[in-house]
From TrEMBL:
Residues 446-540 form the Fibronectin type-III domain. It comes from Amycolatopsis pretoriensis. SUPFAM superfamilies: Fibronectin type III, YVTN repeat-like/Quinoprotein amine dehydrogenase. It comes from the Bacteria. This is Fibronectin type III domain-containing protein. One of its GO terms (molecular function) is hydrolase activity, acting on glycosyl bonds. Residues 285-306, 330-350, 375-460, 526-547 are annotated as: Disordered. The chain crosses the membrane at residues 32-51. Residues 424-441 have a biased composition (Pro residues).
Length: 634
């Protein structure tokens, strides 16, 4: 780029009237604090609002949150502690883009999934990179990242100089990030609880719930916990596997969502079916600590996104009413803040500084929820006025002072001989037709329903296809696919997508899929497929499980983790382990499948480092053999 933008810091707030000319001739007028250091550059020159020319080595602002202003094509940074914009610069992007913050670089992620990286110190942008997947990625800011999680596709993109795409090998729920940069996630198909360390190029799964269990990950005191909404329990998760189950003691539905972090030690859960917020004391993890009763708060009717936690308060966004609702750790309502109107759907974002940010879809306003529950409205500072001045008519010619008008030059006399010609008949005068009236202006509206929606069942999956929806005056920005039946869920796809494969479905359960198109005005009506029923192939999956029983505990010892899928529902199977160690023998373990033909368990303490192990069972009259696993020391 031919410009450079540098950020600096000042120690005082001084109100100034500022007028800056943006590239393209637009003007920016605002009365803003001097701490707002916005370097708006054109033609290679640097302008800083401190009144000094900063050095090229100025540090980037590590805290706070970046967002994207679609009108000015700018990335702006908010200092969360002051709720002030302290940096901004023009970066190419599209309406509805989101900005992620890394250590030294930022990333503008468009609604089409494309990624533009820029330097946070200079705001110099790199050429855009194509979308890693057609699915709209979930943004996660963490050490070693940031990341985009493609939950249905089973992939995680680690953003950096080059995008690194990591295969999770199956669909998963919303990840959470610990302080050391480890991502923890739950596989929604196998039930495995997996981690991705900040320097790893693949995931590992030290623990597992039952296949088909619903729920999600959260952090309690910075440590990962799996909230199982199927059996309504909590389990700690770590490198050594999962801890003992602790009952939730609240009647949550399978669709209940946990906040990514606790609220003063309590786990915040939102049940969209009952519209209730629960705050659960996880003290059962420590038998010496008395456990307090769960708290329940009834929310008003609405379409809610969240919950998100600042550590002291929990936040939800009512997308139907354009409101931010906050509650404290006792379940008491703290505030209801209107979200300034603008086209599109507001985004509820957990910032890397543990604050919560509500971004307008076009970046015109951001609400900042501080740790103590204070809410600040931050407009995009210095938005150029969308006005234009018609060109003025040229000034009249002014005679030069002291001169006088000149007579035209005399022409010599000439003799002209005229001949009489017959005069043509007069042409009848016609009245000119008035110009046609301009067509009436039609306001943009949400898109129409997609055409030809269909679904085809697979093994624990279904492929959903659709045709394009009419845009109705505003381009389609995304397609939302939802499903119901054996389970419910949703995935958002980019505007060019025409199909997606939904993973993690229960076999022998019927599902119906609905697709709706989205533009800046809103969501259009949905169109549904016919009912389809996934049918599975019997499969055994073997992985390393948790610690051995105490009597077998020695170096390299761990249990084998076995997952069954695609088997007959509510049936008994005997699982037998095998090893390349000729002296190994084990009688096996019996297990019952659930109503979807799935089961999982941990058994068979093993410490034969260097050996290869596998398990077998009998299904439909044939022997089913698992994958082969080389046993390691840990």
């Amino acid at each position: 780029m031919d410009r450079e933008c540098i950020r600096c810091r000042t120690l005082r707030h001084v109100k100034l009237g500022i007028k800056v000319r943006l590239p393209g001739g637009k003007k920016l007028r605002s009365r803003i604090p001097l701490v707002l250091v916005v370097a708006l550059c054109a033609g290679g020159a640097v302008v800083a609002l401190t009144g000094k020319t900063p050095s090229a080595g100025a540090d980037f602002v590590p805290a706070g949150h970046w967002f994207y202003d679609s009108e000015t094509q700018s990335a702006l940074h908010i200092d969360g502690s002051t709720a002030q914009i302290d940096s901004a610069g023009q970066v190419p992007g599209r309406p509805g883009s989101q900005v992620l913050q890394g250590d030294t670089s930022g990333y503008v992620v468009g609604q089409d999934g494309g990624i533009t990286m820029f330097d946070q110190s200079t705001l110099a942008a790199q050429p855009p990179q194509p979308a890693p997947d057609d699915e709209r990625g979930l943004a996660i800011e963490a050490a070693g990242g940031p990341y985009l999680a493609y939950r249905n596709a089973g992939k995680i993109a680690r953003l950096g100089g080059a995008v690194q795409l990591i295969d999770v090998e199956g669909p998963f729920g919303d990840p959470v990030a610990t302080a050391d940069g480890t991502l923890w996630l739950n596989r929604t198909d196998t039930g495995q609880l997996c981690r991705l360390r900040k320097d790893d190029s693949s995931v590992s799964c030290p623990a597992s719930a039952q296949p088909g269990d619903t729920g999600g990950m959260t952090l309690v005191g910075g440590k990962p916990v799996f909230v199982n909404t199927h059996d309504r329990t909590l389990r700690t998760v770590g490198d050594d596997g999962e801890g003992a189950a602790v009952p939730l003691d609240v009647p949550v539905s399978a669709a209940t969502r946990p906040a990514a972090a606790d609220v003063r030690g309590r786990i915040a859960l939102f049940d969209p079916e009952s519209k209730r917020l629960y705050l659960v004391d996880p003290a059962g993890f420590d038998p010496a600590k008395p456990r307090e009763r769960p708290i329940s708060a009834q929310l008003p009717p609405g379409d809610y996104d969240g919950p998100a936690s600042t550590g002291d308060v929990v936040a939800l966004v009512d997308k139907a009413g354009d409101k931010l609702l906050t509650y404290d750790h006792t379940g008491a309502a703290r505030d209801t803040k209107p979200i300034p109107p603008e086209p599109g759907t507001p985004k509820l974002v957990q910032g890397g500084d543990a604050r919560v940010y509500v971004e307008g879809d076009q970046g015109r306003h951001v609400l900042v929820l501080d740790h103590d529950g204070r809410v600040s409205d931050v407009p995009a500072a210095g938005r150029p006025a969308a006005t234009s001045t018609p060109p003025s008519p040229p000034p009249p010619e002014t005679p030069v002072v002291g001169s006088s008008p000149q007579e035209p030059p005399q022409q010599p006399e000439r003799t002209v001989v005229r001949t009489e010609r017959p005069k043509p008949a007069p042409t009848p005068k016609s009245t000119p037709k008035p110009p046609p009236a301009p067509p009436p202006t039609v306001a943009a509206s949400p898109p129409s329903a997609p055409t030809q929606v269909s679904a085809k069942a697979g093994d624990g999956s279904a492929t959903v296809s659709w045709g394009a929806a009419a845009a109705n005056g505003s381009p389609v920005t995304a397609y939302k696919v939802t499903w119901s039946g054996g389970s419910s869920g949703s995935v958002t796809m980019i505007a060019s997508a025409r199909s997606t494969t939904v993973q993690g479905l229960a076999n022998r359960k019927a599902y119906t899929f609905t697709v709706k198109a989205v533009n800046e005005v809103g969501d259009g009506p949905g169109a549904s497929s016919g009912s389809v029923t996934p049918v599975g192939t019997e499969k055994l999956t073997l992985s390393r499980g948790g610690k051995c029983d105490p009597e077998w505990d020695r170096e390299g010892c761990a249990k084998m983790r076995v997952v069954l899928s695609g088997f007959a529902p509510d049936a008994h199977y005997d699982i037998k382990p095998h090893s390349t160690d000729s002296g190994y023998s084990n009688e096996g373990h019996g297990v019952e499948t659930d109503s979807s033909g799935r089961a999982s368990f941990s058994a068979f303490d093993y410490f034969g480092v260097g050996h290869t192990v596998w398990v077998t069972t009998t299904g439909d009259g044939a022997t089913i053999t698992s994958n082969r696993l080389k046993w390691t020391g840990g």
